[in-house]
From TrEMBL:
It comes from the Bacteria. It is found in: Membrane. The chain crosses the membrane at residues 6-22, 34-55, 61-82, 94-111, 123-146, 167-187, 193-214, 226-246, 283-303. It is a multi-pass membrane protein. It comes from Metabacillus endolithicus. This is AEC family transporter. Keywords: Cell membrane, Membrane, Transmembrane, Transmembrane helix, Transport. The keyword Disulfide bond does not apply. InterPro entries: Mem_transp_PIN-like.
Amino acid sequence: MGSFNLQFLYCIIIIALGYLLKRGGIIKEKDGEGLSRIIFNITLPTLIIVTFHDIKIETSLFLLILMGFLYGIFIGFIALFLFRKKQRNIKGMLGMMVPGFNIGLFAYPLVEVIFGKEGLTYFGMFDVGNAFIVFGLSYLIGSFYSKEDVKLDPKTVVIKLSKSIPLMTYIIVVIVNLIELRIPSTILNVAEIISAANMPLSLLLLGIYLNFTFDKSYIKLMVQFLGVRYGIGLVIGISCFFLLPFDDMFKYTLLMGFLLPTSVSVLPYSVEFEYDQKFVGTLSNITIILSFVILWVLANLLISP
């Protein structure tokens, strides 16, 4: 366990480095947008290719896709019900933030440290279901409640899903795996080199986006949001951990997965739908810090020394 905690410490140092570079003016927060696009569209897809190209996908792993998708729908509608008395724009803002998890940027580097390649496989399958929530349900909720006369446009959502390079990579690589096609070794070798950059770049990006200042008037709304998201996630996660008849890695994935930070996609959504961007950004940062602490505690409790 000492080695694991040391790896966690390295993660914290890299995150802190990103934060200090921002505070020192060497890197600006807006630079994180370009770095984020590199991670989402290059390093993360290559990591998916390297992780999934030759693994044996068990039937139980497909259930992780369904679990990620159904949980997102469940907690999304629970949130809309609990926040039903809020103003329309607040309900839409909170409603789009509750479902969906930050797996590609936040979970992958930590899961790689905790569980290795096996963990990436499980969380990758969970992320496929999560992707439909992030780019589908969250987008629909944010769009619908942004203005009084907004109409849902399924075509827009479908187009957005098809343009998600990580999601399309998941689907293509899993299909290739199932039909037992071989990816050319040249592609795999190049992908492996690029994928090695995913963890440090993702951790640096988390540091760049960290912000410890916020408006005190946000506190009550933030506490309500965190209570819904983490309260429900903890109850469902613990229930799945003790009740489901699957292997430990499957149960670790659900328990930790339901307690991950809110998706980074809510930040561009807040711009597109004219929500309070400072509130969304601040609350996203809080979920990152809170989830980091929770995962460290869970990892120390669940993993044998």
